[in-house]
Write a structure and sequence with these properties.
Blueprint: H1 17-30, E1 40-46, H2 52-65, E2 70-73, H3 84-91, H4 110-119, E3 123-126, H5 139-152, E4 157-162, H6 168-176, E5 180-186, H7 193-203, H8 220-227, H9 231-271, H10 277-296, H11 318-321, H12 330-337, H13 344-357, H14 371-374, H15 379-388, E6 404-405, H16 407-415, E7 433-434, E8 441-442, E9 444-445, H17 456-466, H18 483-505, H19 515-525, H20 529-532, H21 537-540, H22 571-584, H23 590-599, H24 611-618, H25 624-637, H26 640-646
Parallel strand pairs: 1-4, 1-5, 2-3, 3-4
Antiparallel strand pairs: 6-9, 7-8
């Protein structure tokens, strides 16, 4: 299938060029403060066939060329094409999350407002206003959403495109909202010299182009008569003429080719008696191969090009057209790709990954080397994927339990104009702070279990936006009443957490403590009582909770399990465990330890500030049988050296 470039259907000779210049000038002035604080929008009205779609795309291209951030709303939702908020989701590339809070109200929902705030668009181009004001949709709800979008982005310029007789409702809504509007109209071009220049210049740009030697054969008068001067219809009519010319040329070429082949056959027949039969067979075989090659590039007997269905993968270039974010997981990249697929090979990759992982027990982030899934892609794309995602390792937290994420990274992604991307490093055990920012950022944890491979990141961010966490200035329960002081104290606690996390990730088999020994302590302090019958101190320091209701399990009084299961702990719980580990191995000094005790608000027991207190409180909630169980596990798992480095805590 031929892909058409943004500039292909546009020419400076177009009758819509003046309207385009007026819009560009209007949007340039809109970046200045509005007089009397009243926003102003530009309405561009055009009859069907006057080239409004090409106009919107050209305006988008010109603005982006100037370095502006533009939201072009020219896509519609499959589920609800007549609802402005749904189409805004599609244009923002927000994955359709069912039952989103506020999805049926007239106002924009929190997730939309958060994305718009992060991206800070300079201009909005809303196409097909008639979709939002027909008899089948609630135009008042759509008008309210559009007005809110305009008022919520006072520094941005707005261009609204629609059909004249269906845009009256929008003018009324703008007037009632005290929003100024001016109108431009895209009119048909007269049959004059400018129209001739427009058609001839366009004929050399469309794909396939008109052969230069046959440009004089374009019937401009017929194009104008059939299109009535409407720019959009004129382009369609022109392309049909070019196709007819190409067909005529191909037919003449085919007749010449057949005449030439007939002569060759006759020549071969004359000399066949004088040469070996195998020469004739070789000629016939070569002729057959030549015909096969001709069919492989999409030529048919009619001379028209047909879509290519090649036996080899389509030569896409995902390395440059859709690069992965730094440290992005394979499943996250595929999920983002699903929102912007441009070729069937990309669509096949998305569908087959979903189908392959639906069987259960399959880690979607580890499928970057699955050649069965990648068979629809080009060799270059396969190499890119294997190089880009090979940092994934098998000992990461299982995919379904890898629920920690960094809201700061999501916000940075949105500000860069892309959908939120899930990072591989968030799947590392005991990772609770993101160090990719100017200051460390505490990770959050997804609370919902209804996510899919395609919407995991969007669901996480939507949940964060709807939660108090996005509005609180502190990441821990603190004792201070002053908001300014509390924010400073919270930042200091996060910095201490980041310090110990970096130290912990630098441990190895030869350090003291070893990486495995330190991980064992963290796992004990973060033990999940609803799974094993034991509750670690770090997990219950701020809140006493379990991942399942106590009534759902009887294992608290039953047989003990020696298995450590800390992966369901929240980042805030991991931070407490890091503070304990830092105090025990002198990564956190006594002054910082006392600061933690004085600042944080515990559920019951104050925070330990010395090695002895950490050893006493770490397993305080465990009975003697439980302590004995974990002590025995440590003796069998570690060498004498490693065991001695942590025995004080057991």
């Amino acid at each position: 299938m031929v892909r058409h470039d943004t500039l292909e259907f546009w020419s400076d000779k177009s009758g819509n060029q003046e309207a385009l210049n007026d819009c560009l000038e209007f949007l340039t002035r809109q970046r200045e403060p509005a007089p009397l604080g009243r926003p102003e929008v530009m309405m561009v009205l055009a009859e069907p066939g006057c080239g409004a779609t090409a106009f919107a795309r050209q305006l988008n291209f010109r603005l982006r060329e100037r370095g502006q951030r533009v939201l072009l709303m020219d896509k519609v939702s499959v589920r609800d094409p007549g609802r402005f908020k749904s189409n805004l989701d599609v244009s923002l590339q927000i994955h359709e999350i069912s039952k989103r809070a506020g999805s049926t109200s007239a106002t924009l929902h929190r997730l939309q407002r958060a994305v718009l705030e992060a991206r800070h668009y300079d201009a909005f181009i809303v196409h097909d206003l008639e979709n939002y004001g027909s008899d089948e949709v609630d135009e008042s709800t759509n008008a309210a959403a559009i007005v809110e979008l305009i008022r919520g982005n006072p520094e941005a310029g707005f261009v609204l495109l629609g059909v004249p007789y269906t845009a009256k409702w929008m003018k009324v809504a703008l007037r009632d909202a005290n929003i100024e509007s001016r109108t431009l109209q895209l009119l048909p071009m007269p049959a004059d010299e400018r129209f001739v220049h427009f058609i001839t210049s366009l004929a050399l740009r469309v794909q396939p182009p008109c052969p230069l030697e046959r440009i004089d054969e374009i019937d401009v008068a017929a194009v104008h008569a059939m299109s009535k001067g409407k720019v959009g219809q004129a382009v369609t009519t022109l392309m049909q003429q070019i196709a007819d010319l190409s067909t005529e040329t191909s037919t003449k070429h085919q007749e010449h080719q057949e005449h030439h082949e007939a002569y060759l056959h006759h020549y071969v027949a004359e000399v066949a008696s004088e040469i070996s039969t195998m020469w004739v067979e070789a000629y016939e075989e070569e002729e057959s191969v030549s015909r096969d090659r001709g069919q492989a590039v999409g030529h048919t007997g009619s001379g028209k090009q047909t879509p290519v269905i090649a036996s080899e993968p389509f030569s896409t270039d995902l390395r440059h057209s859709f690069p992965a974010m730094d440290n992005e997981s394979f499943s996250s990249w595929v999920a983002r790709l699903s929102m912007v697929v441009t070729h069937s090979s990309e669509c096949m990759l998305v569908e087959e990954l979903i189908q392959f992982c639906s069987k259960g027990g399959t880690d979607p982030d580890m499928q970057f080397g699955n050649l069965e899934l990648l068979r629809s892609l080009s060799v270059a794309d396969r190499l890119y994927i294997s190089e880009q995602f090979r940092t994934a390792v098998a000992d990461m937290i299982p995919y379904q339990q890898a629920l920690n994420y960094c809201p700061g990274c999501f916000t940075s992604d949105l500000a860069a104009g892309v959908s939120p991307a899930w990072r591989l490093e968030w799947r590392q055990a005991r990772r609770c702070v993101c160090l990719r920012h100017d200051t460390p950022v505490m990770l959050e944890r997804v609370g919902t279990s209804g996510f899919t491979l395609l919407d995991k990141a969007w669901r996480a961010y939507a949940e964060y936006i709807d939660s108090p966490a996005s509005r609180l200035t502190t990441k821990f329960p603190l004792q201070h009443s002053s908001s300014n002081q509390a924010e400073k104290d919270s930042d200091r606690l996060v910095a201490l957490t980041a310090k110990v996390q970096s130290w912990f990730e630098g441990l190895s088999a030869t350090t003291s403590p070893s990486a495995d020994a330190a991980e064992f302590l963290l796992a004990c302090w973060l033990q999940d009582s609803s799974e094993t019958g034991a509750q670690g101190f770090a997990r219950s320091y701020f809140f006493f909770r379990t991942s399942k209701p106590i009534s759902a399990t009887k294992r608290q009084q039953g047989k003990l399990s020696a298995q450590l299961m800390p992966d369901s702990s929240r980042p805030r719980d991991v931070a407490v465990a890091y503070w304990m580990l830092g105090i025990a191995f002198n990564v956190i000094d006594s002054a910082d330890a006392q600061f933690i005790r004085d600042t944080t608000r515990p559920y019951s027991i104050p925070f330990p500030v010395s090695l002895d207190e950490v050893g006493l409180l770490g397993l305080l909630a465990l009975n003697k049988r439980q302590k004995k169980c974990y002590l025995a596990l440590a003796r069998t798992r570690f060498s004498e050296r490693d065991f001695e480095s942590i025995a004080w805590a057991l």
